[in-house]
Every structure is written in structure tokens, then in C-alpha cells.
């Protein structure tokens, strides 16, 4: 089966993750690139031996394009993903699925109407460590999950984005919407839902633009740090911290505390999972290196997306899953802005 893929938006995420992974997938024959900035699409088409669409409509009207990666900036996801689904394409949408619940519902509804696959790129579910962690938690050897803490932080998107400056769209409220909460936080909230097989239903939080400035030297319009308390439907309690100011080292760790022991994920540079039981026994797992901005390895996301199209399977991250995480992010931001406890 030969699949032709289209990519909307030719920034860093397309260049470093989507395009190379489509290129490396044996079932993908070609990539068609679209960006509102034609130099960018031309650059990636040359780099990955693909072609260029001059408009969105041209890309979506091409019957030979079966799958679309929506790598546009956050405020456009609901527009492009909805349109692509209704044009009969399978869609892999970057996270967050949208900036509002109303717009996210439009995307989910378009998927239902079109019958096409919609997967959202919450890539933490795909790492070997997180898959193994879920297996260990599911088999019950650690007993009931009681509490957890998770964090995700690095030195900020201005070191990763396509133009490597403080003018990055991630710092603009109208385009990024949620600051670090939507960039990094939403990934770990989705991961908690996945690992615990549970949903967060109550939150409180503090946020701030503590250190980042925009291209004019002014504090950015969105948060660069956010810290929250979380309670799930099944009564588990946890904390989550997300940051663009972890200068020196990225932190992507999660610790889950159970009746019979503790599981630490991405906590130790050598072992991706450490299990320490109640009676002091320790089991370490060496599975793979964590995907960081400086260490781009294959995320497995594109392969999983292509497989679910090819084999007609349910995506590992559905529109509904993405909607659940979006609701939690919006709740956390509301809690921080109103100094209150918010029910999701």
C-alpha cells in the first residue's frame, strides 16, 4: 500500500519529527508540503524529496493525498483539521487539538461525520518507557495507584522553534493560547490519563511569566511556569509542574506511588523506569533514550498513525482523548487565574 502524505505548516515540528518519520516509513511514497510562507514549504520539499502545494485547497483537493499532518500553529488546528477530515483525509493533528472546547468539538464532530481516522500527537503515550510503565501498572504487581507527580520542562521554545528567537509564536497569547501549559503540560496530563486509566476531575494551580521576555524585552503574554494540584475521578491525588525555565537540563519525569511500591519514569539518566517495592527490592529497566529537543529520535507517532490507517485500527490517541486533556489544561489555567479550585 502506497500512501501519499500532506503536511500543513512547515515549522520545526514538521521538519524534525513529521517529515523525517514519513520519509522513513515504508508505506509512504511521497510528501506534499504546504506553508503560508512558500520558502518554507520549498525548503522541506527539497530536503525530503517531496512536492509543494501552493494553497490548502489544492492540497486537500488532491485525491492522491490520503493522510494529512496538521502542523500549523495552535489557533489554526480546528480550521485545518476539520477541513482535511471533511475533505476525506485521515488526520494527524499536532497538540493541543484546539484552543477551545467548542473548536475541539468541531474537529471531533468532523471525524465522526467523515468516518476518517483522527489521531492527536500526544507523543508521550508512544515511548517504550511509558508503554512498559502502563503494562506494569496494569498487571497489578504494585497494587492500587494512590498518588503521583509529574513534570515537563526545558529551557523554552525559543531554543527549539524555527526562528530561534524571542519572537516565537509560542510566546503570543493569540497564537499559543496556553503558554507552557499547552506546549508541555498537555502532554503530561494526557499521559496521566493514559497511565492511570482515569481522568483528572478537579484542579488548583499557580502560574506566572517568571523569566521569559518577548522580542521587545517585555514579559511574555503567557505563562512560562505553572504548578498544579490534581484529583482524579477515582480519587487519586497528584501534582504537576510545567516549565520553560529549566535551564541546564530537560526534565520529563513522572513518579507513581502505589500500595506496594513506587515507579519512577525518566527519573534516572541510565534507567528509564525504576521500580522500588515496599520491602526495598529495586528493578531497573533500560529501554531507550528519552526523546528531547537535542536528541531527536523516532517518536513512533507517524508509524502508529500510518498503521491505524493501513490496518483500519483505532488510533492510540483519539480526538476524545485530546479533548479530555484540553479540558484539564483549560481548568488549570482558570484555577490559576481565579485562585480557585476548578471542577473539570
TrEMBL record:
Pfam families noted in UniProt: GFO_IDH_MocA (PF01408), GFO_IDH_MocA_C3 (PF22725)
GO molecular function terms noted in the UniProt entry: nucleotide binding
Organism placement in taxonomy: Bacteria, Bacillati, Bacillota, Bacilli, Bacillales
Protein name in the entry: Predicted dehydrogenase
InterPro entries: Gfo/Idh/MocA-like_OxRdtase_N, Gfo/Idh/MocA_Oxidoreductases, GFO_IDH_MocA-like_dom, NAD(P)-bd_dom_sf
Annotated source species: Virgibacillus salinus
Domain (Gfo/Idh/MocA-like oxidoreductase N-terminal): residue spans on this chain: 3-122
GFO/IDH/MocA-like oxidoreductase domain sequence ranges: 130-263
